[in-house]
Write a structure and sequence with these properties.
Blueprint lengths: L4 H6 L3 E5 L5 E5 L8 H4 L2 H14 L6 E3 L7 H10 L4 E7 L6 E9 L10 H6 L14 E2 L6
Parallel strand pairs: 2-4
Antiparallel strand pairs: 1-2, 3-5, 4-5, 5-6
Length: 146
């Protein structure tokens, strides 16, 4: 089942991508940021990938805060993902409907590589590539699905 345009406006979708270096990153949309087509194409696939990284991946490194720590669930989740090797980005907007970016909030000290993932997860994420270098960029912008 697809994420609809209405879903994107009402749900805080956590989605995962692969950057140009093969590093894994997570974005949380907060109902305001752009969400790429590879996410919208299948809720089930997006949910399986999220479940893998949030529930099945082991911690292997430490987290590096990119923004001041805020005591909330999102920051706790972002730190936990970074401890698993995943870069974390959160939605930010400047009230310009066409500029709905993500800002890096937490980085892993040792990033997780796509090549290190189990084959079933690699297959699910095969089309999740984004032309960005998450080690260098503070903000990323993706093309909106709708």
């Amino acid at each position: 089942m697809r994420f609809t345009e209405i879903d994107l406006q009402t749900d805080d979708i956590m989605w995962f991508g692969v950057d140009i270096n093969g590093f894994i990153f997570a974005c949380t949309s907060a109902g305001i940021a752009n969400v790429p087509e590879f996410v919208c194409a299948s809720k089930e696939r997006t949910d399986l990938i999220e479940k893998y990284f949030t529930e099945k991946t082991e911690k292997t490194t430490s987290a590096v805060l990119e923004t001041p720590y805020i005591d909330n669930t999102l920051m706790e989740d972002a730190v936990e993902l970074a401890e698993k090797g995943v870069f974390s980005f959160d939605a930010v907007t400047d009230n310009n409907e066409h500029k709905r970016e993500y800002v890096k909030i937490v980085s892993p000290k040792k990033p997780l590589q796509y090549t290190a993932l189990p084959d079933d997860i690699k297959n699910l994420m095969h089309d999740n590539g984004v032309s960005v270098d998450v080690t260098k960029e503070k903000f990323i912008h993706v093309k909106h699905s709708y």
